[in-house]
Specification:
Length: 574
Amino acid sequence: MVSTTPATRAPATADPGPLRPPWSARALIAAGLLVAAVAVTWLTFWWIGLSPASLAAGLDDTARLLRRMWPPDLPRAGDVAWMIVETLLIAVAGTGLAALASVPLAFVAARTHKGPRRLRPPARAVVVLTRAVPTLAFAILFVRIFGLGPLAGALAVAVHSVGMIAKLLTDAVEEADPVPAEAARACGAGEVQVAVSSVLPRVFPALAGIVLYRLDINIRASAVLGVVGAGGIGVALQTALGSLNYHRAAGIICVIVVLVLLLELLSVAVRRTVLRPGVRRPTVRRRAVSRTGRRDAGAAGRSPGDTTGTAALPAGRAPHDVGWDRGRVLRVAGEVATGVVFLVSLWSLDPDPGRLSGAWPNLRAVLAGMWPPAFSGDLLMAVLESLLMALGAAAVGAACGLVLALLTAVNTTPWRPLSAAVRVLLVVVRGIPDLVYALLFVAALGLGPYAGFLALWISSTALAAKFFADSLEQLDPLPHEALTSVGARRWQAFAAGIWPQFVPSFTGNGLFVADLALRESVVLGIAGAGGVGYLMQESIATLRYDTTAAIVIAIAVVVYAIETLARIARRHLL
């Protein structure tokens, strides 16, 4: 007779209830998203007339254009240096202005802020609107208001960056420890004093990380703002393409790619230095003991009779760590240098008071002409075209990116040298802005959404491959190793050990890629690549600001709706 131990015997009164697979809801959501992606992709192919024959013909035309662009003709070194400096200054000025504006906006929008609650909804509306409308769309408006030049580009970068910086900083403020703020309020401090003295010092590391990340994004965006006359190296690119000087255009594209790649490496190094500073920790912590042999809590870290107050030091800090050591000197020097660079970038924008005052009539005319917004059938069709381009390109890009990710991730690649080669290729492809791809495809294939779809397809594939590869490498390796150790084949170990873990990340990252593709699809029409961007540029050029307002509202609503759906899906899957 086999006995049953108490650890394995089930209680007689236990009612297991209906058995519900824990993954049923997630599986339904994932299956629904897959069906939706297939349906949108098919509709996109039908809308733009994409077929294997047309794709082969389009790629052949693109290959002929690339042959015409070879060899690249680089501009003079002095011209290149000035264009690069102007691009960097636009990004720095816009990011700095956005950071200054985002701090008070984030505190007002935070739920933990005890200030006037009537200001919270407008603050959140500003955050949503500025985040939804792309940088290039703001650049078109500011060029009309302030004229050609880097001032319009910096203001466009600043306004769009406010949405992201303020949103992430609001989350950091809401997640900060509330005890110090409540203590300051109990002592009679006002909300401004509480924010400056208790909350801001605690969220400053998060703010520094957000600003550095946004600066990296803004440098990429500033490289193409010149396409609409907002300064930077994009002006030279647009001039070269407009004059059919493809050799010079190829040289400028090479400069943009090298600039973006070098700045990406620099940004990674700076973030590691600023956000992960080395902290010197003593290996032996000495404790002071009083003459009677009992530990004196008030003199921890001090010798007997020492009254220097080192008991107030934070945990892990020794007395010799206080003062102007090398780390503090470097941090202060970095802060001073950052301030100087920001002031220089502002000065480079030529903020002449006469020019600014002359922009007020243009601003009043734009604002007065925006009401009431003029919605039309053409506008809705253009928005639908942008939506189909973005979602279709994101779906196809996610499928292609998955294949590249499997070749790139260390736990799925069949050959390590192949993984390294694919990684380098993806870095180069991601370094080229979407608008540059759109300009090339428009020059090769002509105007229309076909060129925009191909541009978004390439960028979505590279971005999805990067996200998917990172997610694959972060999975638990034990199931895959266990299956491999018992003789499972590579595809069997992947299907049973890796794929079930990877489905939530695959879906969440795919939705994020679709969100980014939708934002980018709005501006590709500026280059003639279909969608609502061309309609927006035309409305501003013809002074039909009521149509411009309708386009901005439609863009904000669609982008926010897609972002909300993606956030809900990720919440249920991850």
